Amino acid sequence: MRTHHLAVIGGDGIGPDVTAAALAGVRAAADRYGFAIETTEFDLGAEAYLRTGVALDEASTEALRRHDAVLLGAVGDPRVTPGVLERGLIVGLRVAFAQSVNIRPVRLYPGVESPVAGVSPDNCDLVIIRENTEGLYTGGGSISHPGTPNAVAIQNSITTVPATTETVEFAFRLASARRKRLTLCHKKNILVHAGQLWQDVVDEVATRYPDVEHDYVHADAMCLHLPLDPGRFDVVVTDNLFGDILSDLGATVQGGLGLAASANHNPRGTAPSMYEPVHGSAPDIAGKGWANPAAAALSAALCLAGLGERDGALALEAAAASVLAELPALAGPGMGGDTAEIGRRIADRVTDVDPAKIGDPE
Ligand code: NAD
Ligand code: IPM
Ligand code: MN
Known about the structure:
By secondary structure, the chain is of the alpha/beta class. The protein is built from 11 helices and 12 strands. The longest helix has 19 residues, at 15-33. InterPro entries: ICDH/IPMDH, IsoCit/isopropylmalate_DH_CS, IsoPropMal-DH-like_dom.
């Protein structure tokens, strides 16, 4: 039997709960499609950091590396200085495992209501492809005279042709397999150096994909066009920080952060890819059972797809979409069940859903 070895980092806040719910769906898909999942839990996140003073040690990184994929819940905790876990653990793993491409689908499933008027499943099916290791996330910089009226902070942004090309190549290949439209989103009217590099790379890669038409939208204008006219977009390729911000906006358009999935993808296959919801640890609702596990389940579906389990991936996506369509609310106390119950419903549905009918509320 095919066996996939999954590393699991539940993390902080709602992370462990949504991850456990997603894993129930993964196991149901494994049962239905005849493969095996072996999981290794990693004790990483705020508790481990508060105990050890280290966000991600070398031994954990190497142990994670030996797995076929990593499933992550979320990290971030009010007791830990912002950035320590987010940079140390998540960005650390994205860089260590060369996960240069972040795939963030924005899809409104049938039966789910978008908070934005006029958005429907027919006009909301796009994918944000975010460069995942560079830009302002490289973290270099300094602050002089901190805490004084003369403080000056410098935050470096690095953009290289290799990582940009890898991301843009992936985006064109995806667009070529979809509706053949690619939009570069940047802010090249102000960030002239990085913006020019992105545009040059897009223009160069475009010559290899003559079937894909491409255009350009500034990041600020994208905040208007994406919610008002999502049907205009197929694949949006963008840099790390713009992609981070736009994917929360995209999540809102598709019904909320509890529904938005992501894959931190290593396109060269040199290290495991990592799958996580777009949302964070949500300390405001942690422990209440109000977190929607659909984003984690849909991320786990992306994980199954990455592992080559296409049928299992489609069944898990269809199951999550079908359960979403019947929830009275998409998050919070009125969700129609707590996180674990919704997870069980998704897992049960994996067993008998028709994977071809994604999001069909019937
Ligand atoms: P957040 O995504 O955790 O929460 C934003 C809002 O969305 C909150 O009101 C929250 O209750 C709600 N929400 C999030 N996920 C939900 C779900 N599954 N179901 C229902 N509601 C949900 O963002 P934040 O509050 O800005 O950040 C909280 C912490 O998480 C911070 O420490 C931040 O750095 C961290 N963070 C981590 C990740 C990650 O691990 N990938 C991503 C984003 C933020
Ligand atoms: C995300 C998160 C992360 C990011 C943080 C937690 C490092 O917001 O995955 O969207 O900024 O990329
Ligand atoms: Mn984010």
